[in-house]
Specification:
It contains ten helices and twelve strands. It has about 270 residues and is an alpha/beta fold. The protein starts with a strand and ends with a helix. The protein binds 2'-monophosphoadenosine-5'-diphosphate (ATR).
């Protein structure tokens, strides 16, 4: 029987995961299907159980179910445990294993696809939700100089910073505290762009030659992109590479085969 995979979310119509995973499967000759499943806001667990009962082998989890996925799993990989969030599930017998491929995906896109070195860099991470937590560990592991996590709700940023403090130099603060500071890499991990807005950032935070990276991929010019361009960021990414890289890592977790990301990035690139 063909192996079945899916992405769970609400809403889910915007998800590019089925296109990406189907392209990976075709490219590597894997016998599998991948579809999107709209789970009711109060029915994530039931939707997953039903999928497993119907023969599901694994899944991705997107907004707003990442925390619930974290609760549902029977076992976590070390990187998911560290992140406190799971975006990839593996169904194996009675086990539901939770993994997190976001951090690896972001680092691979920045260092390999964009060719932007991270070692020794001053990094600013905007947001303190699950998306943000998923990338803190891998960023600190990559040998950055220092990480500042800024969030609208300041205590959340401080909690995340404390959680990762043993891994490297990291502090949490509010957006207004960024005034007068500049960074080599600014990563937007907030969901503000989903509502067409951006965090209230002071001017001057982009150092010469800096990289502006938006983690939530979406079409069109966003306020963050426009702000980064006006403020002199040298490299601006809307997060397409991370989207494809985290999917490739999930595919590798499920199938043990590493697909090529470039052809799939080209497939999705807006003309
Ligand atoms: P996720 O798991 O996808 O990160 P989340 O846990 O709901 O989702 O976190 C969303 C993040 O985006 C939070 O950091 C949130 O800030 P608060 O913690 O202050 O709520 C941030 N965010 C969402 N909308 C925002 C906006 N309009 N301006 C600034 N930050 C915003």
């Amino acid at each position: 029987m063909t192996d079945q995979y899916a992405v769970f979310g609400n809403p889910i119509g915007h998800s590019k995961s089925p296109i990406i995973q189907t392209a990976f499967a075709r490219q590597t000759g894997q016998d599998m299907t991948y579809k999107s499943i709209l789970a009711p806001l109060d029915g994530f667990d039931d939707a997953v159980e039903a999928f497993i009962a119907a023969g599901g082998r694994g899944a991705n989890v997107t907004v707003p179910f990442k925390q619930e996925a974290f609760q549902l799993v029977t076992r976590l990989t070390p990187r998911a445990e560290l992140a406190g969030a799971a975006n990839t599930l593996v169904f194996k017998g009675d086990e539901i294993i939770g993994d997190n491929t976001d951090g690896v995906g972001l680092l691979r896109d920045i260092t390999i696809n964009l060719g932007y070195p991270v070692a020794g860099k001053r990094v600013l991470l905007l947001g303190a939700g699950g998306a943000s937590r998923g990338v803190v560990g891998p960023l600190l592991d990559a040998g950055i100089k220092a990480l500042t996590i800024a969030n609208r709700t300041v205590p959340r940023a401080k909690v995340v910073a404390e959680r990762f403090a043993r891994l490297g130099p990291v502090i949490g603060c509010g957006y207004d505290e960024l005034a007068g500071q500049s960074f080599d890499i600014v990563i937007n991990a907030t969901s503000a762009s989903l509502s067409g807005s951006m965090p209230a950032l002071p001017v001057g935070i982009f150092a010469p030659g800096s990289l502006a990276y938006k983690m939530m991929y979406g079409m069109g010019d966003t306020p963050f992109r426009i702000f980064a361009r006006e403020q002199g960021a040298a490299v601006i990414s809307e997060g397409l590479g991370m989207l494809v890289e985290q999917a490739a890592e999930s595919f590798f977790v499920w199938r043990g085969v590493r697909p090529q990301v470039r052809p799939v990035m080209e497939l999705l690139q807006p003309a």
